[in-house]
Amino acid sequence: MKYEHFETKAIHVGHDQSQHNDSLAVPIYQTSTFVFPSAESGERRFAGQEQGYVYSRLSNPTVACLEERMAALEGGDRGLAFASGMAAVSAVLLGLAKTGDHILCSEGVYGCTYGLLHYMEEKLNISHSLLSMETKEEIEQAIVHNTSLIYIESPINPTMKLVDLQMVAHVAKEKGIPVIVDNTFCSPYLQQPLALGCDLVLHSATKYICGHGDVIGGIVVGREDVMKQLAATVQKDIGGVMAPFDAWLLLRGIKTLAIRLDRHCENAEKIAALLKGHPHIESVYFPGDNQFPQYALAQRQMKRGGGMISFTIKGGKEEAQQFMNALSLIKIAVSLGDAETLIQHPATMTHAVVAEEDREKMGIGQNLLRLSLGLEAWQDIWEDLERGFTALQNMPTVTNYESN
């Protein structure tokens, strides 16, 4: 049965109870291998002539349900699950690029993606370049004869800058180049890059897909032919596959994805409005703010502004760390999308591996903080942030103020 609405797909796609002893929940198939009914059946399955499971590194019923459900939510033909978000990123980049190729990337990328790109350049002679991707002409000029793919984060981690996905996809299609989008910050509930013309979408499923801070995982969704190629090569042979229990936890998380994202977004909207104009704040970066430079683009390609805010405080690293250390409810941690509100300092944490010169180009200064709004009452989140501001009052680099 096909379902029209996102919330229904998130609960039902991929699971037929009649095929699993009428179990309401998807069973955990905690097995490494599967028994063949006959030697001939085993031969046919290895030859791809018969449906059926062989070995959990190749496919597993619990993992398969997750892959099918994520494909439905993203509007793709097929999904592939991996042991981590970086396993998913690695699979796509290694699977679609070869020695001598060039990868065109959005100006900002996650620190470990940045590290992987440099590793690939050093070890495999696969070069890359970072581009703001603000205009069609800029992208056309940056594409060279050996550009094999375009890799985008939008919103970009941690500056929240957006890339016009439809515009990039249009340019790429004229050149026959696939476009890959890291959709971690939005989840398929807030943004669907495939519907905008992009070719592959990936997630660190550790974040909003899970939502509870207890799973490491990655997902890739796209066309059947590309997914088949990745499954038969980098997924099978490199082997960064997802465990059945992790897939089961992610399936559980997905059931409440829409409800959770609505609350994350509501909290982010409230907190962003309070941060703006605060005496200790220099700037706030939130796509849901109608004064955000790319607000019109956010309205076109995102359902809402998301649950992530980045902001700069007056001062530098010392002030940023003093602010974080004064917090109590909000936890200092580098993940996002959890029920708990989390804060981190990108310059010394998630993006510490990025060369200082590149960090500056990306807009990642020592006074930038990234806030992942959780599911708590927004009033309690704001009260905790006020603790951080109070801790800054007596520092010589910041002017005292009367809290209102």
Automatic annotation (TrEMBL):
<dbReference type="InterPro" id="IPR054542">
    <property type="entry name" value="Cys_met_metab_PP"/>
</dbReference>
<dbReference type="InterPro" id="IPR015421">
    <property type="entry name" value="PyrdxlP-dep_Trfase_major"/>
</dbReference>
<keyword id="KW-0663">Pyridoxal phosphate</keyword>
<dbReference type="InterPro" id="IPR000277">
    <property type="entry name" value="Cys/Met-Metab_PyrdxlP-dep_enz"/>
</dbReference>
<dbReference type="GO" id="GO:0019346">
    <property type="term" value="P:transsulfuration"/>
</dbReference>
<feature type="modified residue" description="N6-(pyridoxal phosphate)lysine">
    <location>
        <position position="207"/>
    </location>
</feature>
<dbReference type="GO" id="GO:0047982">
    <property type="term" value="F:homocysteine desulfhydrase activity"/>
</dbReference>
<dbReference type="InterPro" id="IPR015424">
    <property type="entry name" value="PyrdxlP-dep_Trfase"/>
</dbReference>
<keyword id="KW-0456">Lyase</keyword>
<dbReference type="Pfam" id="PF01053">
    <property type="entry name" value="Cys_Met_Meta_PP"/>
</dbReference>
<protein>
    <recommendedName>
        <fullName>L-methionine gamma-lyase</fullName>
        <ecNumber>4.4.1.11</ecNumber>
        <ecNumber>4.4.1.2</ecNumber>
    </recommendedName>
</protein>
<dbReference type="InterPro" id="IPR006237">
    <property type="entry name" value="L-Met_gamma_lys"/>
</dbReference>
<dbReference type="GO" id="GO:0005737">
    <property type="term" value="C:cytoplasm"/>
</dbReference>
<dbReference type="GO" id="GO:0030170">
    <property type="term" value="F:pyridoxal phosphate binding"/>
</dbReference>
<dbReference type="GO" id="GO:0009086">
    <property type="term" value="P:methionine biosynthetic process"/>
</dbReference>
<comment type="similarity">
    <text>Belongs to the trans-sulfuration enzymes family. L-methionine gamma-lyase subfamily.</text>
</comment>
<dbReference type="GO" id="GO:0018826">
    <property type="term" value="F:methionine gamma-lyase activity"/>
</dbReference>
<dbReference type="InterPro" id="IPR015422">
    <property type="entry name" value="PyrdxlP-dep_Trfase_small"/>
</dbReference>
